[in-house]
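Write out the 3D structure for:
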Amino acid sequence: MVGTAVTILMAGAVGAVAAMSSGVAAEPESAVIAEHEFQDASYAGHKDGCRKCHLKEHRSWSKTPHANALDRLEGEDANNPECLQCHTTGYGEPGGFTSIDDTPQLAGVTCESCHGPGSAYRDKETMKDHDASVAAGLEMPNETTCRGCHNEQSPNFSGSFDFEAMKEEGVHDIKQ
């Protein structure tokens, strides 16, 4: 897989922007917001990847609705691809969530939902250097990242999304 392009899907991000500017809902296939070349990029899973070194962030994240996002889906929604794109990590992507039985480490909105597949940047030496981590594929989430799911296409969208407020209470402790 060396040099394989991995497309990061943030369901609805582009669609939300297109819908906001045109007033027409976009198809879920238009949700691609970034394509990167990652060497051997794959999803590591937060328990085997991020938690080891980012315990404080993991603990605070585990208290957010993102940690249990898959559990919030009921009935048919629990198997609906449009719902799974936002309630799991990497659904529809190579190595992403497929089922709770096969990929339980990717259930919910985990670190890699926002920061991208971690296998290429998760080693300790790379993570010591922010620029090297980003070059290896670490995504630094922003409002567009969040709006990939928190948008008008979501059946539970309240009509507004305050990024500044939500990044303080909706994700994890943020290192300064």
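Residues 1-39 have pLDDT under 50 and may be disordered.
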